[in-house]
Amino acid sequence: MKERKNFWDRNAGRYDRFMRKDRAAYDEMYELIRPVVKAKTVLELATGTGLIAKHIVNAATHIEATDASPEMILEAKQDNQSAKLHFSVQDMFRLPYADKSFDVVIVSNALHIVPQPEKALAEIRRVLKDDGVLIAPTFTHAENSFSGKVRAFFMKLAGFPLHSRWTSEEYLRFLRQNGWTVRKGADLKASFPLTYAECVKSEV
């Protein structure tokens, strides 16, 4: 976890500028997310600077938006205009919330950059209500074009912590293998292929 936090702390101030090129994909993602979070209590993990949380908070009842990087959370708090949105530093592997606390959990573009993402999914399962929804969009780097692979190479040189390299199909299969039923999947066009996944708990 320390390596990942250091990278994100170092790059917190430039994160929003870096993400601007994917604005169209993110706008599409907000449209997919808003109906799911309408009048719901939401937990967002790996919120970064709070881009998603700030764009969907008007639809939700309340959002707890968390990140392991203190610098990211400082950036997120700076222009938070909503009393319904609370930012805090948390470890997604050891969340301080009670079992079945949230209607929706969002973890966006994070499962591919953490070690042992299956453990993060287990912790998400714990804090999500039995009839709750997991929204887990992730960059699926294994489907990169040549130019995407070049960008990924230089990001890795800069210290970007890529732990899992999935195709869209592999990523959705990974979710299913770890106790989730994918009720909606979509491939969004971004600088790297972006797989949107909306899941519910699989019956044991």
Automatic annotation (TrEMBL):
SUPFAM superfamilies: S-adenosyl-L-methionine-dependent methyltransferases
Domain of life, source organism: Bacteria
Domain Methyltransferase type per the UniProt entry, residue ranges: 43-135
EC numbers: 2.1.1.163
Presence of the UniProt keyword Endoplasmic reticulum in the record: no
Keyword Methyltransferase: yes
Pfam family, any one: Methyltransf_11
GO MF, any single term: demethylmenaquinone methyltransferase activity
Keywords noted in UniProt: Methyltransferase, Transferase, Ubiquinone
Listed GO biological process terms: methylation
Protein name: Ubiquinone/menaquinone biosynthesis methyltransferase UbiE
Protein source organism: Intestinimonas butyriciproducens
